[in-house]
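Is 9MR placement plausible here? Inputs below.
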Amino acid sequence: MNFLKPFTVLTLIMLLFAQLSFAQEETTYLITDFDGNGILPNAWQSYGDLGSHGVVSAKPNSDGKFYEQVWNGSTDEGYIVSQSDITFRLIPKKKLKDKTIDNVFLRLDISCGGAPGTKINIVLVDGPNDCCSNDVNWQYSFVKNTCEWETIEINLAEFGYAYDPSNHEKSININKVGRVKIGVDVFSGTKRQLVQFDNVALVVKDKVAVTGYDPSASIADTNTLKNGAKDFFVGIAVNPSRVQDANYSAVYTKEFNSVTAENAMKMKSIFKGIDSEGNLNLDWTNSDLIVDFAEANGLNVHGHTLIWHESIPDFIKTFTGTNQEFESIIEKYITAVVTRYKDKVDSWDVVNEAITDNSSALRPSVFLERMGPDYVKKCFQYARNADQEVKLFYNDYNLVFDTQKQKGAFEIIDDLMANNLIDGVGYQMHIDYNFPNKQALQTATALIVKRKLLVHFSELDVKTNPKGAIAEFTEKRNNAQAQKVYEVVEVYNAIPTENKYALTVWGLKDDDSWVTPRYGFLDWPLLFDSSFGKKKAYAAFIQALEK
Ligand code: 9MR
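Reply from A.M.:
I modeled the complex. Tokens:
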């Protein structure tokens, strides 16, 4: 047993005493302590490798007093979840009836036994199988940076979906906790990684301490988003009609110091045709309006986006010339746009959303088809040739939690870095009020920071009604959204200054958002309500900056 263990046990005893004096506030269920010969209390049923009497020293180096899981990594870097290595399972026998997801916590002692930086997944399985079919698999990922034993406590509400993205919209029904299996799963890695754990418990709290966003704190009207952000831009997605509308432009210029054209700088808006000599017909009306507005008001411009499979004019989709001609047209297009806005646009999303969902492969597109798998690199090279100063970004969605897509994206990014063609990565933050969790945001952000690239949290909006379950914006969702915004801003603000670029909100008012028309459910995803009123999410943004 690790020499630190007695302290952990002591801490637990103290915690138990503390619980006694506040018995009505916290109830610990189903604790399992492997010191006691791995005996499982009646409340737990073991499953899988544990055998019928609790822990078996099935793994090397385990003394049987805590449970140990070892991964002898052989792959490049920790992206792959080894499902076969989920060997620890406890099935609570007792159902936790009438407890909401907000007040049930998983508590456990954990150590990484000598490999700091070990990535850990804890998995909840709500269903009959171990993995995937018919199950709802929820996952909580974090990186353990020190290997001292520590007691961690995770709100079950912070678990995100694991293996099956179609479970994304499902919630954990706490009345089903009786069928939840808890697994600890070690991410693969280049070196041997190890996780040890003990004293696993489900804790039900009557009162949940508020961390993060404080709904009772008021924000002075003189505060603004941009003033709170000391070392990065706070951006807003705009469009031509709104920059000309005094109600909007007043808020844009008061609160924000950077703009992104929501649609006006996409290929479909600018590229109108090709004449018989191969000259491009480009319409700058809308893009100029936005760039001029930014210039007149001293705002930064982030360009969005040169190449995106969803914004292609028909004549490009159906182009009948040779591949060589196609490529030359794309080069001309990128060169023309970047050149026109040289010294005016500070940064470009060069290629947007190039990777297929839940996969590391390039998304099928006319660009891939006509220019080959190197098309991303070619486009970045054209942009770089046109302007050596402008910052070049790769931008995509779900990169925080779609580990396959993340892997594919960083393969591209690493290749671009090797060729000195990229300055930053945009994580589109189209997220939900309860997903992804803060830890996942931090872990994914660290992947950009460690590469010394700029981080753009682009396209922030926080869905409050992803399943269409509510008909009006409830106070509970309002607070939950504010808490999620708080976490996003907190994570962004904590990254080193040299890696910061911008945090961009994808629209001003709830009723302006693309979310409701796209998903067909009424939603309230932004920082301002439909009357330009500041929402709790707005206050949370500022609070997180003041922390
Ligand atoms: O918000 C944009 C919406 O108004 C457009 O109709 C749509 C198609 O051009 O694009 C939306 O913005 C997308 C962004 O450009 C790229 N990431 C996903 C965004 C939401 O769909």
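Short version: The radius of gyration is 25 Å.
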